[in-house]
Write a structure and sequence with these properties.
255 residues, globular, alpha/beta
């Protein structure tokens, strides 16, 4: 079992990339179904406000720290081995690692054409990679028939890993509701990784990622869409300080 730390009621996994990849390997080998929530601070805030989402995050196989603020926080709490498990990096590392095992990948998400462009990019980058299918769902809420058609296509392709890129918290809800309906043992929500790795959107330089300012880079590129997400960050800091000082306690559930 991977150790977890309560951050505003969300159990964040104490992870680094090597541990995340080894755990994913073990799930594939055992065919044990799990989903991975790659989680930055704004998703923790969403879970803090929404008990249903909090339950989904806490029910994951991993709720990985995708954000330097969470990495720094876990480090301050004594978990020195924690490193950022960033969605695009996790996808690239898992693809590279999967070639030897012949793991089969399915790409679910993105705007029309994005999943196909991502598949092309990954196949060029990793010769021998097995991508067995792509699907870009409609932006509207899927009808039962649309959903069943997608599930049938995924199961016919028989993937080991489903990469889900439909943004948070929609992708976390999709993974939790489809665990067991799709035959793949591993579902991983990586959000904007579809756009970044397909070349559809610019990715922050590595030094900006390490500095903890990637959110500012993304806000500058998409201010209208992302401002509601990132304006939560000052409150996140206040709430975490209150928790660390023992002034507030945050339950894992509403029970």
């Amino acid at each position: 079992m991977i150790e977890r730390v309560n951050v505003l009621g969300v159990q964040v996994s104490v992870l680094n990339m090597d541990l995340a990849l080894a755990t994913i390997d073990s799930w594939i080998q055992s065919r044990e179904p799990h989903y991975v929530a790659v989680t930055p601070a704004h998703v923790v805030m969403d879970g803090y406000r929404d008990p249903g989402l909090r339950g989904i995050l806490n029910g994951s196989g991993m709720t990985a720290p995708d954000g330097m603020s969470l990495v720094w926080l876990l480090g301050l709490l004594g978990h020195r081995h924690v490193r950022r498990v960033y969605g695009p990096d996790l996808m690239l590392a898992a693809c590279a690692r999967s070639i030897e095992g012949g793991y089969r990948h399915f790409l679910y998400g993105g705007a029309p054409g994005v999943a196909e462009a991502l598949a092309t990019s990954l196949l060029a980058r990793f010769p021998g990679l097995v991508v067995v299918g792509t699907h870009s769902p409609s932006f509207h809420e899927l009808t039962l028939q649309e959903d069943e058609t997608a599930i049938a296509a995924i199961n016919a392709a028989n993937p080991d890993m489903i990469w889900v890129g439909i943004s948070s918290p929609k992708q976390e809800r999709w993974m939790a509701s489809h665990l067991g309906k799709v035959s793949a043992p591993v579902l991983i929500g990586v959000g904007a990784a579809f756009d970044f790795l397909s070349g559809m959107k610019p990715q922050a330089p590595r030094w900006i990622q390490r500095s903890g300012l990637e959110w500012l880079f993304r806000l500058a590129s998409e201010p209208r869409r992302l401002w509601p997400r990132y304006r939560q960050y000052p409150l996140f800091v206040v709430l975490v300080l209150a928790q660390m000082l023992g002034l507030r306690r945050y339950p894992l559930s509403e029970d």
